[in-house]
Amino acid sequence: MCGIVGYLGPSQNSVQIVLEGLRRLEYRGYDSAGVSFLDEHDHLQNYKKAGKLDNLKMELIGKNVIARTCIGHTRWATHGGVTDENAHPHFNETLSIIHNGIIENANEIKKELMGHGVKFKSETDSESFLELTTFELKNGKPILEAIADSFKRIHGNSAFVILYPKTGEIFAIKRGAPLVCGINEITSEALVSSDPYALAGIVHKLYFPEDEVIVHLSGANKNLVNFYELKDLKKTTRYLSKKQDMSVEVSEKGEYEHFMLKEIHEQPGLIRNLTQYYFVGEGREALEKVAHYKPDRIYLSACGTAAYAGLVIRDFLEGINRIPATVELASEFRYRDPILKSGDVGIFVSQSGETADTLAAQSLCKKAGVKTLSIVNVDGSTLYRDCDDNLLIRAGIEIGVASTKAFTQQALTGRLMSAAMAGDLKDEAKKMKLTGKFALLAERIDHLLVKSEIIKTVAEAIYNKKGFFYTGRGVYFPLALEGALKLKEIAYVHAEGYAAGELKHGPIALIDEEMVNIALVGPELFEKTVSNIQEIKARKGIIVSIGPRNNEELMGLSDYYIPLDFDGLDELSPLYVNVVNQLLAYYMAKFKGTDIDKPRNLAKSVTVE
Ligand code: M6R
Fold first, then answer.
1. Could you tell me the CATH number of the domain that includes residue 466?
2. Which atom of ligand 1 has the smallest separation from the CA of 406?
3. Is there a domain that residue 250 lies in?
4. What is the pTM of this model?
């Protein structure tokens, strides 16, 4: 959720480096931002501000921010409102800390420390860790021991970065939350962050510490970074190291007004590249591994948009491979004691690979001896590292909080997996055929993007209506769910995705002339879906149909009609329809004037449960 960055090195520009890292991570949380740094006299300076990162930058204008050591944070509020006091870092005369996660026993710790006369300045859970560590230091413990003993006391998943002004060192530790550090041996710089993207272009080598490993950034003359076990403070190698090869350029908006629009437009190119990557490129080996899977049953588990992509994948696996598959919301699956058997396979779908609930679902399967596979975007993410096998979706960095291209790539990677499991990798003709289908999908989406004015006109006509029902049947039902989610999150209007046949079992009571039905009508179950539209029309609902072109019946029924060419797309047609939903939500949000790339209350990567 929150973005965290720490820098230690010879540059006197550390505050700017940290602010640039935070700018890249702001999509993770943007309620407030702050930095702590040691000035040229080694005095701790702190600045924090509610609101977006720009507010903090304004605050820093004209201030003397020459510093070699700095930590910074962008917040997604969990405990305590969005105020300057609750913003991170939390500091006192001894320490400054930033935190990502939740301390479940914060109240108990606070109460105990208050008994010792400690005063708290914020409503956050994070401050309890600050004061607990400070208390341990005051009791005479060395810094490493003080951090370790405090961390052992807290419950829940968290990552902390701690700046210790007395020595100018930075420490970090995590449990169930993302943390990465990186070094540049040439420039003697060491950084730590919640996301490798913040470190791209600065460091050459990345380290991903495992849970309960203390990271110590120590400065130029010693090792740049050291790792210690929480349990005994002995040096450890419990981390994964890897070359930093991420580029930063890809994250600019270019000619587009929003990242979301740019990411929608990237889809045709990404779709074309995916078959290349898996059939002739580097991805071959990973897909060949999956071809040997012979599961009795498949559990797909994910959250939000990724769970809806999971539903599309389920339809491929059941429809094409005839393997029983279910989609489980990770936040429920992890607690409902599911019956897992060794012949099952768990598939975890995620853009970030850091979603707390999805990680917990994976861990549950692993503990039960079930093989785990990720369908994931971020190479090297926690999910990627924890799963037995991985299929990368190759979407490139997704900045818009509303997931678009990741959905498409997740579903299509699932289609390639289903082809591999059906034995199609051994058959050149079948591979060619599927490559052709992907290319056709890309071409159709290209056409759609050129004609997006039609969608914009519809958006302008309906964006102020009271509520929206997205309906679909069969393979279009997941798109109804995903379409409604997209609209809710970026346009802030109430929308629901419904199976078209279910509306009359209750929700139809809501239909009147202010309610819009976005009807997703594919060639499959066409007549039945049209009957459902009739039922809404009879109750004066506004009908927006997204369906086969040149269909007089549908056109006659609809107040607004977005005609599509389904020919030849077959099982990939849901992905085509979904792009219409993405554009419709985008334009409605634009007419509403919302913050499309950073919608209120949301964060890109949900690392708390
Ligand atoms: O990174 P993940 O794919 O695991 O994230 C899962 C959801 O948090 C995510 O899809 C969320 O629903 C999006 N904001 C939807 O656009």
1. 3.40.50.10490
2. 3
3. no
4. 0.86
